[in-house]
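Hi,

Apologies if this is the wrong queue. I'm a grad student, and the batch job for Transport energizing protein, ExbD/TolR family from Megasphaera micronuciformis F0359 produced an output file that my downstream script rejects. I'm not sure whether the problem is my script or the file. Here is the sequence I used:
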Amino acid sequence: MRRDRRILTQPAVIIIPMIDIMLFLLVFFMISSISMIQANAIRVNLPAGQAAENDVKPHTVMITITSSGDILYEQETKPSSDFDEKIKKKVVEDPDAVFVVRGDRKAPYENIAYALDSLKAAGVQHISISVDK
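Support response: The file is valid. Your script probably expects a header line. Output copied below for reference.
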């Protein structure tokens, strides 16, 4: 009696679709994590405004005035002692930079005025004031 011999094939793991799915998941989580990162890490209680626009440009410089009156340049966590020099340096590097002043609603007005005066004295052309809608 003759036996039928089957041709045995080794099972193969096809990894091409798995690589595609992993790449898709990687891109998805990278994009979603970027959107979760808040552009303004320092918590400031902004005043409300009626005609506020949500417009952050790529060459935007954040100037934050905390409720205690500290003036912070970009994402610094301590007050900047060389605030005027940093502004002048940034204006020389990028004359079209937009400086956004984020003043806490309880911040002393003289500190906000000082920041605005410093920006104007440094020759900043584009100044915005950030408020909540």
